[in-house]
Give the backbone structure.
Amino acid sequence: MNVADYIYCPPLVLNASDKPVYAMPPSNWMAYYVKKDISPEKQDAVFRILDWGNSERGFTAMQVGLLGDHYSAYDINNRVVTRTADQIEAFRKVSSGNFAFANAYRDLPAIQGGSTPENTAKWQAETKIADAATVKCYFGFTKMLDQIGVQFPDINSDLSSLEVRYITGEIPYETLDAYIKNTYAPAVAPISAEFAAYMVKNPARYVNR
Protein backbone atom coordinates (compact mmCIF):
# COMPACT_ATOMS: atom_id res chain seq x y z
CA MET A 1 0.00 0.00 0.00
CA ASN A 2 1.31 3.41 -0.98
CA VAL A 3 0.44 5.83 1.84
CA ALA A 4 0.97 8.77 -0.50
CA ASP A 5 -2.28 7.73 -2.20
CA TYR A 6 -4.26 8.43 1.00
CA ILE A 7 -5.04 11.41 3.20
CA TYR A 8 -6.48 11.59 6.73
CA CYS A 9 -9.70 13.61 6.64
CA PRO A 10 -12.29 14.83 9.16
CA PRO A 11 -15.63 12.95 9.36
CA LEU A 12 -18.07 13.45 6.51
CA VAL A 13 -21.00 15.87 6.80
CA LEU A 14 -24.34 15.95 5.04
CA ASN A 15 -24.24 19.72 4.51
CA ALA A 16 -21.16 21.70 3.51
CA SER A 17 -22.01 24.37 6.10
CA ASP A 18 -21.86 21.85 8.98
CA LYS A 19 -18.74 21.30 11.03
CA PRO A 20 -17.46 17.68 11.27
CA VAL A 21 -17.89 16.00 14.66
CA TYR A 22 -15.72 13.41 16.37
CA ALA A 23 -17.49 11.21 18.94
CA MET A 24 -15.09 10.98 21.89
CA PRO A 25 -16.06 8.07 24.16
CA PRO A 26 -14.51 7.77 27.62
CA SER A 27 -10.96 6.48 27.85
CA ASN A 28 -12.06 3.60 30.08
CA TRP A 29 -14.57 2.26 27.62
CA MET A 30 -15.09 -1.06 29.51
CA ALA A 31 -15.45 0.49 32.97
CA TYR A 32 -19.22 0.70 32.64
CA TYR A 33 -19.41 -3.10 32.84
CA VAL A 34 -18.43 -3.04 36.53
CA LYS A 35 -21.40 -4.36 38.47
CA LYS A 36 -22.59 -2.23 41.35
CA ASP A 37 -23.70 -5.21 43.46
CA ILE A 38 -20.35 -7.05 43.66
CA SER A 39 -18.41 -7.17 46.91
CA PRO A 40 -16.25 -4.20 47.95
CA GLU A 41 -13.18 -6.43 47.62
CA LYS A 42 -13.96 -7.23 44.00
CA GLN A 43 -14.79 -3.62 43.25
CA ASP A 44 -11.43 -2.60 44.67
CA ALA A 45 -9.65 -5.21 42.54
CA VAL A 46 -11.43 -3.96 39.41
CA PHE A 47 -10.57 -0.33 40.05
CA ARG A 48 -6.96 -1.15 40.89
CA ILE A 49 -6.45 -2.84 37.52
CA LEU A 50 -8.24 0.06 35.80
CA ASP A 51 -5.83 2.43 37.54
CA TRP A 52 -2.92 0.32 36.31
CA GLY A 53 -4.31 0.32 32.76
CA ASN A 54 -4.34 4.12 32.89
CA SER A 55 -0.77 4.41 34.16
CA GLU A 56 2.10 4.90 31.71
CA ARG A 57 3.33 1.35 32.31
CA GLY A 58 -0.06 -0.29 31.98
CA PHE A 59 -1.07 1.80 28.97
CA THR A 60 2.17 0.92 27.18
CA ALA A 61 1.89 -2.79 27.95
CA MET A 62 -1.71 -3.07 26.78
CA GLN A 63 -1.38 -0.82 23.73
CA VAL A 64 2.05 -1.75 22.29
CA GLY A 65 3.04 -4.88 24.21
CA LEU A 66 6.24 -5.96 25.93
CA LEU A 67 9.64 -4.51 25.10
CA GLY A 68 11.65 -6.98 23.04
CA ASP A 69 8.71 -9.29 22.35
CA HIS A 70 6.41 -6.82 20.62
CA TYR A 71 8.45 -3.68 19.96
CA SER A 72 12.06 -2.49 19.94
CA ALA A 73 11.48 1.08 21.13
CA TYR A 74 8.54 3.25 22.12
CA ASP A 75 8.61 7.05 22.41
CA ILE A 76 5.55 7.79 24.53
CA ASN A 77 6.10 11.55 24.29
CA ASN A 78 5.69 11.50 20.49
CA ARG A 79 3.65 8.27 20.37
CA VAL A 80 5.98 6.53 17.92
CA VAL A 81 6.70 2.77 18.11
CA THR A 82 9.54 0.90 16.40
CA ARG A 83 8.75 -2.70 15.45
CA THR A 84 9.88 -5.48 13.17
CA ALA A 85 7.41 -7.47 11.07
CA ASP A 86 7.83 -10.43 13.47
CA GLN A 87 7.10 -8.21 16.48
CA ILE A 88 3.96 -6.86 14.81
CA GLU A 89 2.74 -10.40 14.16
CA ALA A 90 3.56 -11.47 17.71
CA PHE A 91 1.60 -8.53 19.13
CA ARG A 92 -1.43 -9.32 16.98
CA LYS A 93 -1.59 -12.77 18.56
CA VAL A 94 -1.96 -11.40 22.10
CA SER A 95 -3.72 -8.06 21.73
CA SER A 96 -6.12 -5.98 19.65
CA GLY A 97 -7.70 -2.56 19.49
CA ASN A 98 -10.34 -3.70 21.99
CA PHE A 99 -7.90 -5.14 24.53
CA ALA A 100 -6.60 -2.05 26.33
CA PHE A 101 -8.55 -0.51 29.20
CA ALA A 102 -7.50 3.03 28.26
CA ASN A 103 -7.92 4.43 24.76
CA ALA A 104 -5.66 7.39 25.55
CA TYR A 105 -2.91 8.45 27.92
CA ARG A 106 -2.58 12.16 28.69
CA ASP A 107 -5.07 12.97 25.92
CA LEU A 108 -3.28 11.07 23.14
CA PRO A 109 -3.67 7.60 21.61
CA ALA A 110 -0.84 5.06 21.82
CA ILE A 111 0.48 5.58 18.29
CA GLN A 112 0.35 8.72 16.18
CA GLY A 113 1.86 7.82 12.88
CA GLY A 114 3.01 4.95 10.72
CA SER A 115 5.89 2.53 10.57
CA THR A 116 8.42 5.00 9.13
CA PRO A 117 9.45 8.57 10.04
CA GLU A 118 7.97 9.77 6.74
CA ASN A 119 4.63 8.11 7.39
CA THR A 120 4.57 9.43 10.94
CA ALA A 121 5.21 12.99 9.78
CA LYS A 122 2.44 12.71 7.17
CA TRP A 123 -0.02 11.30 9.70
CA GLN A 124 0.65 13.87 12.37
CA ALA A 125 0.44 16.80 9.96
CA GLU A 126 -2.86 15.64 8.48
CA THR A 127 -4.49 14.73 11.80
CA LYS A 128 -3.53 18.13 13.21
CA ILE A 129 -5.39 19.83 10.34
CA ALA A 130 -8.39 17.50 10.74
CA ASP A 131 -8.54 18.03 14.51
CA ALA A 132 -8.52 21.81 14.11
CA ALA A 133 -11.53 21.60 11.77
CA THR A 134 -13.53 19.21 13.93
CA VAL A 135 -15.86 19.51 16.90
CA LYS A 136 -15.12 17.04 19.72
CA CYS A 137 -18.19 15.55 21.41
CA TYR A 138 -17.40 13.92 24.76
CA PHE A 139 -20.06 11.64 26.19
CA GLY A 140 -20.53 8.70 28.55
CA PHE A 141 -21.03 5.10 27.54
CA THR A 142 -24.20 3.40 28.72
CA LYS A 143 -25.05 -0.30 28.81
CA MET A 144 -28.60 0.35 27.62
CA LEU A 145 -27.41 0.85 24.04
CA ASP A 146 -26.05 -2.71 24.00
CA GLN A 147 -29.62 -3.95 24.32
CA ILE A 148 -30.42 -2.77 20.79
CA GLY A 149 -28.15 -5.41 19.29
CA VAL A 150 -29.38 -8.05 21.76
CA GLN A 151 -33.11 -7.45 21.40
CA PHE A 152 -33.16 -6.49 17.71
CA PRO A 153 -30.23 -8.27 16.00
CA ASP A 154 -31.84 -8.37 12.54
CA ILE A 155 -32.96 -4.74 12.59
CA ASN A 156 -29.54 -3.69 13.86
CA SER A 157 -27.65 -5.62 11.18
CA ASP A 158 -30.01 -4.37 8.45
CA LEU A 159 -29.34 -0.78 9.52
CA SER A 160 -25.58 -1.36 9.43
CA SER A 161 -25.88 -2.84 5.95
CA LEU A 162 -27.95 0.09 4.69
CA GLU A 163 -25.47 2.58 6.16
CA VAL A 164 -22.61 0.94 4.28
CA ARG A 165 -24.61 0.74 1.07
CA TYR A 166 -25.50 4.43 1.36
CA ILE A 167 -21.86 5.44 1.88
CA THR A 168 -20.79 3.33 -1.13
CA GLY A 169 -23.53 4.88 -3.28
CA GLU A 170 -25.64 1.73 -3.74
CA ILE A 171 -28.77 3.30 -2.26
CA PRO A 172 -30.03 6.90 -1.93
CA TYR A 173 -30.18 8.67 1.42
CA GLU A 174 -33.99 8.56 1.29
CA THR A 175 -33.93 4.74 1.53
CA LEU A 176 -31.74 4.81 4.61
CA ASP A 177 -33.76 7.61 6.18
CA ALA A 178 -37.06 5.77 5.57
CA TYR A 179 -35.75 2.61 7.23
CA ILE A 180 -34.60 4.56 10.27
CA LYS A 181 -37.91 6.42 10.64
CA ASN A 182 -40.31 3.57 9.78
CA THR A 183 -38.57 0.45 11.11
CA TYR A 184 -35.56 1.10 13.32
CA ALA A 185 -36.80 4.05 15.39
CA PRO A 186 -40.21 2.53 16.33
CA ALA A 187 -38.59 -0.76 17.36
CA VAL A 188 -35.97 0.78 19.63
CA ALA A 189 -38.19 3.59 20.97
CA PRO A 190 -38.22 2.35 24.62
CA ILE A 191 -34.42 2.05 24.69
CA SER A 192 -34.08 5.42 22.99
CA ALA A 193 -36.30 7.03 25.61
CA GLU A 194 -34.21 5.54 28.41
CA PHE A 195 -31.05 6.76 26.72
CA ALA A 196 -32.50 10.25 26.18
CA ALA A 197 -33.38 10.50 29.87
CA TYR A 198 -29.84 9.48 30.81
CA MET A 199 -28.34 12.09 28.49
CA VAL A 200 -30.48 14.84 30.04
CA LYS A 201 -28.81 14.06 33.37
CA ASN A 202 -25.38 13.47 31.77
CA PRO A 203 -25.16 15.89 28.81
CA ALA A 204 -22.47 15.65 26.17
CA ARG A 205 -19.62 18.17 26.27
CA TYR A 206 -18.56 19.89 23.03
CA VAL A 207 -15.10 21.32 22.35
CA ASN A 208 -14.05 23.53 19.40
CA ARG A 209 -17.64 24.13 18.41
Observations:
- The longest helix spans residues 117-132.
